[in-house]
Amino acid sequence: CVRIDRLDVALRQERAALAQAKTLTAGLQAARAKETDAAKASLSALEAQCAKRVADGISRGRAIAQIVAKPVTPGQCFDITHSDLKAVVR
Known about the structure:
This protein is mostly helical. It is about 75% helix and about 5% strand.
């Protein structure tokens, strides 16, 4: 079984990665305004990757939140396997 504290850690890690991707996206957008056309194309590709990472992070975060949202008590176990959890937080 997977303890609720492990899910909380996974959710916190996902939120941190999501914040980092959003910060990187904002930095790329600011840099894009100052660059040449060739550099803008490169930055566009990086922005697309960041946007996908943000979307994936939101999706994984929602999946984790659905598991965590169930009423629980400290130390309670969920009837899911570690491979299920890995699929969610991958």
